[in-house]
Amino acid sequence: MRLILALIIVLGTLQSAELSTMDTIRSKLLTSAISLYFNARGYGKVDNVTVDTTKKTLRFNLFPEGEKQPLNVDIGSYTTLIEDKEEYLILQKVQTNRVWLNRIFADHMQEGIKVPLGIVSKGAGSLLLKL
Questions:
Q1: Which of 39, 41, 40 is nearest to 60 (CA)?
Q2: Rg from Cα positions in the chain
Q3: How far out from the chain centre does Cα 55 lie?
Q4: Bridge partners (DSSP) listed for residue 60
Q5: C-alpha 101 chain-centroid distance
Q6: Rounded to whole angstroms, what are the CA distances from 15 to 3, 30, 51, 53, 63?
Q7: Who's near 109: CB < 8 A, 6+ residues apart?
Q8: How far apart are CA 73 and CA 102, in angstroms?
Q9: Quick check: 80 and 90 in contact, CB under 8 A?
Q10: What is the SS3 assignment for 122?
Q11: Digits of tens for pLDDT over the chain (131 positions)?
Q12: Do 23 and 57 touch, CB atoms closer than 8 A?
């Protein structure tokens, strides 16, 4: 909890800093959350999460379990959600470098992918994304 509070204070002092600096810090936190989510389900390893809070987009690489080629994932929008005192990142408008997978997301993932933030954010995930 102290780490999260310290991070909030640091981010607060970075208000005048470049947006890219703040988004770099956010990207590191989101790499942890998204990586935990995908690893726990056996989907693969996540690397290089990049967030753009002005556009509300994300981009990352997924190294799918059992495959040799990485999957480039672009998230066209994201939102945060608090449900039953749990905090989530909702990934929407998912696009990849695999046409067939894009079709599956378009047909079956209108609600988005619900990634828990609690483990890495300790309740401050949506605040960090809004600073």
A1: 39
A2: 15
A3: 14
A4: 73
A5: 19
A6: 19, 20, 17, 14, 34
A7: 92, 94
A8: 10
A9: yes
A10: coil
A11: 444 444 444 444 444 344 467 777 777 777 888 888 889 999 999 988 888 888 889 999 999 999 999 999 999 998 888 888 788 888 999 999 999 999 998 898 888 888 887 655 454 555 455 54
A12: no
- Residue 2 Cα to chain centre, angstroms: 22
- Write down the residue that tokens 């997301």 correspond to: 105
Q: Which residue has the tokens 């959600």?
A: 81
Using CB atoms within 10 Å of the CB of residue 125, give its burial: 0 to 12 exposed, 13 to 18 middle, 19+ buried. Answer: buried
Q: Rounded to an integer, what distance in angstroms lies between the CA atom of residue 111 and that of residue 29?
A: 23
Residue type, 127: L
The single-letter code of the amino acid at 5 is: L
